[in-house]
Amino acid sequence: MAGWMASDTLRAKLPVYDGTMWIGPRGGKKVLNDASLLSETPIHKHIVLKQNPEAGLIAAIRKELVEARSEGRPINVGAARHSMGGQAIPRDGTAITFDNGTVQVDKQAQSYRAHAGARWSQVIATLDPVGLSPMVMQSNNDFGVAATFCVNAHGWPVPKGPMGATVKSLRMVLPDGDLVTCSPSQNVELFNLAMGGYGLIGVIVDMEVEAAKNTRLVPQFEVFPAEQFAGAFRAAVQDPAVSMAYGRLNVARKTFFTEALLVTYRETADQTDLPAAAGSGWMAHAASRIYRGQLGNEEMKRFRWWNETAVGPTLGGGETTRNSLINEPVVTLDDRNPSRVDILHEYFVGFDQFDGFLAACREVIPASYQEFLNVTLRYVAQDDQSVLSYAKVPRIAAVMSFSQEMSARAEADMARMTQALIDRIVAIGGAYYLPYRPHARLDQLAQTYENASTFSKMKRELDPQLVLRNNLWDNYLERL
Ligand SMILES: Cc1cc2nc3c(=O)[nH]c(=O)nc-3n(C[C@H](O)[C@H](O)[C@H](O)COP(=O)(O)OP(=O)(O)OC[C@H]3O[C@@H](n4cnc5c(N)ncnc54)[C@H](O)[C@@H]3O)c2cc1C
């Protein structure tokens, strides 16, 4: 740990490479990091593959697999490397980044075929002019399409489940070099292992994914005591007129998680002449300044809550489109502070367990040293496909954003707090999300993901030489 502390300021100032924190060589060694800036890991090499998902790309992947296997090295493919615990980094291995945004739309079938490395901004740019929109993606547009499938991310359209449920088929190169097509009806076992399988099952080259209609939407805002949120959110999710929905909770320490905001979007009567998808507007940039002002400032946290619940509905309450809402890059919220880093956590709890979740958070989070900046609440429908499913029942997802000091003290406190939160959330039947910091204990992972040892067993059968590896495998799944 001392290694990364010594040069944190320098590190944060190094160039961002293709969305990937690419640092090196350091002391003669090549190293790779991710968006956490806390995952620095030695690698053998990093290559970027730009080919279309045809014979050239497949041959290049096979060549790397053969070379890595003969040298006993791991391989891993990443996209934006916004996972935060080295889930897209192979220790001493070959890190591959795909750089190709090819997206072909089938308007008739309301679907599209995307290169595995295409980013959501590229998907939106292709779908928007033909009146379509991604069915499910994360809240930001920087991430890779196959990466989204590999973490099985969710978004905030309701009543949808994770993105994997919207994938019609995909092609993937297995560790032995075979190219397979997988779908919910073909090679189903492989499909379900790869969905949320963090790139450990095969290298995905392209995917056919369902699209939704782009629509003009108008928001509605409601504020109430936090204990009323689950009931109101359930009603919103079940309302067929609601197509997007999210919640927020107040975060000032003294009144932590006592009030809730619910924002629901419904289609307007007029769906003609939709404007082109916008990027971040002035509202998003202004909100970002207030958001950052919360750091160490309880007054500002209260101001932001007032702004979101009282001012926002008036100023930001106008019509927009589905594509404009999801076309937001991560950089809008960037802190530009070299001594701190934004760290996310995410927990999934059943609607009936929401009060228990509030109690757990009130007990654990304000007592820590961490700066808690935001929580967004989303809906995730039940996922019975993915082997490493985090939604065995319909769940409320709580995406939390912390600003963490880049120091050993802060890292130790974050690890302690994370384990305390996971203990309480698992005790109420909830789950934690795997793409973030690797602070959970192994027993917590095994308890949360009851099929994890089955996943590891099947991975070993498919990949006996363990050529596809990353820090999630090395830190956890290998030990099951
Ligand atoms: C600001 C922010 C907002 C977020 N919002 C959400 C949200 O709304 N909902 C949500 O569910 N999550 C959210 N996340 C988490 C996010 O979905 C994951 O971190 C995701 O991994 C990011 O995509 P990426 O392109 O950075 O993936 P990477 O970190 O590059 O890769 C993720 C995984 O996919 C694998 N992979 C990538 N490409 C391939 C391929 N072609 N073949 C095989 N394996 C591959 C990698 O090996 C790795 O294991 C958010 C994260 C951040 C930082």
Describe the structure concisely.
With about 475 residues, the chain is of the alpha+beta class.
Proportion of beta-strand residues: 25-35%
Spatial sequence of strands, sheet with the most strands = 17-14-16-15-19-20-18-21
Structural class given helices, strands, pairing? alpha+beta
Q: Determine the number of helices (DSSP H or I, runs of at least 4 residues).
A: 15
Strand tally is 21
How many angstroms separate the termini?
25 Å
Q: What's the CATH architecture name of the largest domain?
A: 2-Layer Sandwich
- Averaging pLDDT over every residue, what do you get? 92
Overall 3D geometry? Answer: globular
Instruction: State the share of residues found in helices, binned by percent.
Output: 25-40%
| C-alpha Rg (nearest Å) | 21 Å
Q: List cofactors, ions and other ligands.
A: flavin-adenine dinucleotide
CATH class of the largest domain: Alpha Beta
Commentary on this structure:
By secondary structure, the protein is α+β, with helices and mostly antiparallel strands. Strands 17-14-16-15-19-20-18-21 form an eight-stranded antiparallel sheet, with helices on both faces. Strands 8, 9, 10, 11, 12 and 13 form a six-stranded antiparallel sheet that branches. Helix 8 runs antiparallel to helix 9 and helix 11 runs antiparallel to helix 12. The chain has 15 helices and 21 strands. A hairpin with an 8-residue loop joins strand 3 and strand 4. The chain has three domains: 94 residues, no CATH class; 111 residues, Uridine Diphospho-n-acetylenolpyruvylglucosamine Reductase, domain 3 (2-Layer Sandwich), CATH 3.30.465.10; 226 residues, Alpha-Beta Plaits (2-Layer Sandwich). The protein is globular, with a radius of gyration of 21 Å. The protein starts with a helix and ends in a 5-residue tail after the last helix.
